[in-house]
Each structure stands twice: as C-alpha cells, then as structure tokens.
Design brief:
about 250 residues, mainly alpha, 6 helices, about 85% helix, rod-shaped
C-alpha cells in the first residue's frame, strides 16, 4: 500500500494571491452588470406595457442588487487580507514576548548567586530577550502598518519598555564584570524603574491580543455583511418576480 502525504496548508502569500485573483475575476462581472443596467434603463421608456415595464424595473433591481453584493464582497475580501496578515503577525509577536519574558526571568534567576560565570550567563540570556523583544516590537508595528485600524500601541510600548529594561540589565551585568560598583547601582535602579513601568503597561494588554484583530475584523465587516444580505434578498425577490413574469409570457 502506498500513502500520499497530506498537502501542506497554503501560505499567507498563496492565500493573498487567491484573494486577489477573486477580486480580479469580479471586475468583468461588475462591468457586465453595469452594462446590463444601462441597457435596461435605456429600454424602459420604449416599453408601453405596464407588465413589461415592471419586469424591466425588476431586472434592473436584480442587476443593481448583485452589483452592490459585489461591492460588499470586495470590501469583505480587502478587510480579510489585512486582518489575516495582522492576526498572524500578532500571534508571532505575542509568542516572542512570552519567550522574551522567560529569558528575562532566567537572567534574573541566575543573579541570585552572584558569580562571574552566572553574570555572564545572565548577560547572554538578557541579550536573547532583547533580540526577541525587538522582533516582537517589529511584528506588532508591521501588523498596525498593514491594518491601520488595529490599535496595538499597548503591545508596541510594552515591547519597547521591556527591551529598554533588558538593555539596562545587560549594562548592569557588564558593570559588575568591570567591578564598577557605582555604575552597577545606577543601572540596577534604572532597571527596577523600567520593569515597574513595563508591569504597568502589561496590565493594559489583556491575555489574547490576537482577539483584538478578530474583534476589529468582525466590527469592520459588519456593515458590508448586512448590506450583502439585504441586497441578496432584493435580488432574490426580483428573480422570483422575473421567473413568474417569464412563465406567464411563455404560457
């Protein structure tokens, strides 16, 4: 027996291309609907039978409703593109914050037994935390830039503050290795102040920052979804009338 490995899920880039392809496919449909509406509106004045006029009006309603559905659909797709990327970046950034916090805690723990070896190890862990915090800061900033309505300032500020604190911890470790007691005390005091400020910022962040993306996305598409549903009902009612009209004509 042979087994076939499951295909990997599509990458964000592949999803993006798929979304854009859908939008591209919609463009000809929009043009066709606009042309149909214009042709029907030009036809109406020449119709003398009231039933024929009503049928033409219903056909215009059906076409215009579908045109509005396309507009709403494109709006939802555009929002989805921004939200999908921002969601992934926010999740990655949050993971970086968690890993950075673990590295920073380990760096602090190593200093409980002050020795040259432990201070060097602490410095290395703090350096790792700085890298992770810088990456988190970048990811949150990119998420906001790509999805401007998304407010991630609390996360951006927190990552920056923790990065500043860990850089200060590195300078404190170096002061210890340099046997610079005055600088060590100064850096330790500065580090404690920065950590207190970071803790205050952390209280504003919540436990699931990616949920911010979900909430914003749902709120942003609500009007388009409502419009799409309303226009779909209009199109359905017009279609029903036209089916009845065509049925009576063919009898």
């Amino acid at each position: 027996f042979s087994s076939t490995a499951a295909a990997p899920p599509p990458s964000f880039e592949e999803l993006t291309e798929s979304y854009r392809a859908v939008v591209g496919d919609i463009a000809p449909s929009r043009t066709q609907l606009e042309d149909a509406i214009a042709a029907l509106e030009a036809l109406v004045p020449s119709l003398s039978d009231n039933k024929d006029k009503e049928a033409a009006h219903q056909a215009i309603t059906a076409a215009r409703a579908r045109l509005n559905m396309l507009e709403s659909g494109v709006g939802i797709i555009d929002e989805s593109l921004m939200a999908t990327e921002a969601f992934a970046q926010t999740q990655k950034g949050w993971k970086k914050l968690i890993d950075a916090d673990a590295a920073a805690r380990e760096a602090t723990s190593l200093l409980r037994d002050m020795s040259k070896e432990n201070v060097k190890a602490s410095l290395a862990r703090s350096s790792e935390a700085v890298t992770l915090l810088s990456e988190a800061h970048s990811l949150f900033s990119q998420a906001h830039e790509g999805y401007p309505s998304l407010d991630l300032q609390d996360l951006i500020d927190y990552a920056a503050k923790r990065e500043e604190a860990q850089n200060t911890a590195i300078m404190a470790d170096q002061a210890y290795l340099d046997r610079d007691k005055e600088m060590l005390e100064q850096r330790n005091a500065e580090y404690n102040r920065l950590e207190e400020e970071a803790a205050a910022l952390a209280e504003k962040m919540g436990d699931d920052p990616a949920q911010k993306v979900v909430d914003l996305y749902n709120a942003s598409i609500a009007e388009d979804v409502q419009s799409y549903d309303a226009e779909r009902v209009k199109a359905g009612n017009a279609d029903t009338f036209l089916r009845d009209y065509l049925g009576s004509v063919n009898e």
